[in-house]
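G., the chain you wanted modeled:
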Amino acid sequence: MRIAHVLRRLSFNDWGGTEQVVWNIAKAQKAAGHEVRLFATTALCPAERETVDGLEISRFRPIYPWWPMPGRLIRELDLKGGNPFVPGLGAALLEWSPDVIHCHAMARIAELCLRTAGKLGAKSVISLHGGGANVPVAEAKSLRAPTRGRIPWGKLVDHALGWTRRVPEDFGGIVCVGEDEYDKYRARHPHAMFLPNGVDTGLFANLPKAENSAVGRRPPVLNLLCVARIDRQKDQLALVEALARHPDATLRLVGPVTQPDYRVELERRAKELGVADRVGFSGALRPGSAELLAEYAAADAFALASRHEPFGIVVLEAWAAGLPVVASDVGGLGRLCAAHPDAAITFRHGDEKSLDRALDELKRRLAAGEMAAMSEAGRKAAAQYDWKVLAAGLVDFYSKIAPNG
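Predicted structure as tokens:
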């Protein structure tokens, strides 16, 4: 089967959950004998064509349809979205002629994928990665803030092209990362599936034991790790503020900065609270890199305080690395942790006392030497989400979908 994965961006230096899913699914499908290519924009990555780990990647320059469009705004939209036109993408897909066009973006890119699949008679599939079923209204408005007050000339082009953009309903298949979205679409679409995020458990199989292990430290210090983009959705601020109430804890923040003003806010708040010396920023680290694995090895536990989350792929990584997890009880993240209660402790988002109780319980287990049981439970949970298993299920889903046309 010839499979084209289309996503808004694919930069190995600014990595997010969507990129991680697409990359690992594509690698697993190729390993299973399928022809696979990736198509994206040059957002945050100027290389128009490259081959990485045997996978060919083609990128095309995005055009953000607002005026005026200074360079600062282009960078901001590269980070968070922007709904661009992507000249050349459709022609490249037509030339390669895949059997399946699997789109991992919305709006104009999704419309282009639909139109191209119709011309080819190919199957069309779209993955919903962003938890759109439960994004708070205020946050949805903030995503549109960069273009507010600018002339949206792209709407005139949309009208001229006759783009209806019935996304995702017009796709042949809908893949939902979040169970909330799956519940929404399975009743209204004949081909919808829930496909949880996965993990390459092999990467963490021989993770070295950190030198600063909790074993033998007195008094015990709880070293927390959070791997997530620096973004208000991830609410790292709740973790920074918790350090002021837990002087026996430290926090490492790993991930690309998608909201620069939020990074500034985190640093300022850490200084105000007197905890700046216990907060470390590592920036974006490439998935599977020695640097990222070292961060997991150096931690005692993993923390994720998201405001909303369709799944929480980094929780699987933490479990594969043997880290106990403390996470907010929201959306698919909450359900994932609830399904494996021996490996995670949840708290109510926005409730400081609930977060404090969760951290206190982790510290109690740390002091009592009871973390090993949570570590083993996490490794067993992660094994259920290996990418090879998930990729095989996705190909089976493709086979049930009729071609467009």
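Residues 210-217 have pLDDT under 50 and may be disordered.

Shout if anything looks off.
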